Amino acid sequence: MAERERKALKARLLREQEGKCAICGRGDFCPATYFGHGDSKVQTVNTLDHNHSHTGCNGCEQCARGVTHSICNRTITILEINPRLQNDFMKAYLARGLSSTL
Predict the structure, then answer these.
(1) In this structure, are residues 72 and 21 in contact, taking their beta carbons and an 8 Å threshold?
(2) 99 domain residue, yes or no
C-alpha cells in the first residue's frame, strides 16, 4: 500500500473512531503513559494497528484493525501472543482484519 493510501486509511479509521484510540477509547491523553512519575504525558492517536499475520504488509484495508496510541499498540502485541490475558473486548478486537496469511 502506498504511503498516501495508508495515511488516508488511517484518517478514515480515526474519523470513524471519533478521534479516540481503538483500545483505551481516549483522545490525546493515554492513561498508560502515566506511571506515577510526575505529570502524565500527552500522546496522539496515530499508530495504525493491523493484523501482523498479513505477511509483507504494514497495514492495508484488509488487515487494519484501528488507530491507537503508540503505547496501546505495544500492549496489543503482548496480548496477541498471550491469549489467556485477553478479555472479550480484546478477543473481538484482535479478530478484526485479515485472519489468515497470504
Answers:
(1) yes
(2) no
